[in-house]
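Blinded run. Sample ID left blank on purpose so nobody reads anything into the name before looking at the predicted structure. Input follows.
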Amino acid sequence: MVGHDPLIEVIIPNWNGKDMLEHCLLSLRRQTYTNFRVIVVDNGSSDGSIAMVETSFPEVKLVLLNHNTGFSVAVNRGIEASVAPWLLLLNNDMEVAEDCLEKLRLAVKQYPHFHMVALKMMNYHQRQFIDGAGDAVLRGGVGYRIGTMEQDCEQYRKDRESFGACAGAALYSKKLFDKVGLFDADFFAYLEDVDLNMRARRHGVKCMFVAGAKVYHIGSASSGSKINPLTIRLSTRNNIHVLIKNYPLRLFLRFFPAIIIYQLAWMLFCLKKGMFLPYLAGLYQGLLMLPHFYKKGKVLQLSDDLLHPDIFANMIVTAEREAVTSIMARRTAAGKNNFLLSCYCKFFL
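Blinded prediction complete.
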């Protein structure tokens, strides 16, 4: 790692993730490319994370917050403290392949018109399985990591344009944030990258999935299980935020049947998992903040470089088709039925 004029700055938000963070930083020390700097933004950890970084990784820049401000605020502070033209956001529960930053350096040169880069996220424990190969989006207002729980194959070993990137492992040009703004602090955590992807795409920003840039994702290191009251509440609330903020009225009406289907499916999922009360709490909070996000959406509409709503709508439909195809492939490999998804494709895609 270097301290002056880096091409890339790695921004890692951390909250009580000492062991994972140490593992992540050690993997960054092993990079074959060295023209980068690391910024750790600590969200008021009490597990010795700060002392560990100060003692074992003195080359890392620390940005200290006195309480858990959430993902969005933490990464925004890291972005504001950065000086490099390219910013790599990493969750603290990532192991970075030794040539990952070298692959990203090459990608920056190879794809000069792309200002977002999605990394290839692999499952840390079962390394033949993908955790995400670029992000798609559903018309219901949520993201989907393409390839999740699928075995790696030729399809995912080639670079391709992607709707967006998962902020847990994504490279952004700093110019992108100048153009579309930072992560929305009101999201706290979950779906903030869906919001950023939508804003970026509406401004004409493109994203490239770079198959050679690999990280290995442990998953849910800060919040615990992927299915818990916090994730359900925030995901439900922030889903409403994404819809109200990013869909002009004509798109909302056009996508309304798909939105209703998704909302019903999500509610049934929460019931099945015994998470109906967190779901209701998220729904209540989302509706309570609806006027606030409606105003944000109106401000967004005033931008003079937005794509036509029909072009944006077609992007979303194309991305959803890719997401549903990936979901069906995963379910087929697991021996599960795709009847309902097939019906959805027939009538809506």
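Unblinding after everyone has recorded impressions. The chain has two domains: 8-217, 229-348.
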